[in-house]
Specification:
single chain, about 300 residues, alpha+beta, Jelly Rolls, 2 domains, seven-stranded antiparallel sheet, globular
Amino acid sequence: MLRKQSTTTGWRSRRWLITGALVLVVVVTVAGYAIHAATKDRATNVVWSDDFAGAAGSAPAKDKWLLTTGTSYPGGAPQFGTGEIQTYTDDPANVALDGDGHLVITATRDDGGAWRSARVETRRTDFQPAAGGTLEVSARIKVPAPSQGYWPAFWMLGDSFRGNYVNWPEVGEIDIMESTGRQPGLVYATLHCGTAPGGPCRENDGIGARYPLPDGQLLSAAFRTFSIQWDRSTPREEIRWYVDGLLFHTVHADDVDATTWADATAHGYFILLNLAIGGALPGGPDATTTPGGSMVVDAVTVRRL
């Protein structure tokens, strides 16, 4: 009796072990398929991207990017309307790929003290979410080391600004990330809209928020992902800002009047990356400002969510 009972108990134990192993295999397999499907969906939903592959010293892809040069747009506000003091160039010393999958924008100063840097814009001007959908615009960026007067930015402008250059801010501006050399752990996020000065969007400041990195961290210490999610699927349209996936700012359609929101959002946008020197936000460079600082961009991605 005791031997028979022991054998039965052993078989039951083995049966449960076999059943448990099969269940585990099924769970792992299903989870694997789910992860694969989610990854595939994210890849499939990419609308536009650039990972900056190319030879060291080469320009960013000409079919994707425009290089803006000079100190203003034709007929536009001097110093791009911000008081920045650099001249934008297409010189590889100021804008080039590094050969390791990065776009590098570098601020330089010549022997006469004149600053030079770079500003790139996507050729496409039609980035916007579909009706009822959400569009994510993101970039992995390492900003320059702290230096007074530096002003790196990743941002977007309404499509009709290109070629017009005098319809700001009503055409809309979405600042995904701005940073200054005097506030090396702080991210600025802003929607510009309406009229200036003043108006429903409190221009020239805009509707903004600040995100301080925790524990005194510096933005320049590592690559970070800066993104927005422009959501038309909610009961009220909204734009959300993130740093490394952490939500820290939201602007809703009903934060302003319907006409202001429509003027700013009922159209496509283009994307910009630039490194300015001086201007209203960072203040001018001083004796401590070091030339040669670089904004390094690992990738830019636009995807549907």
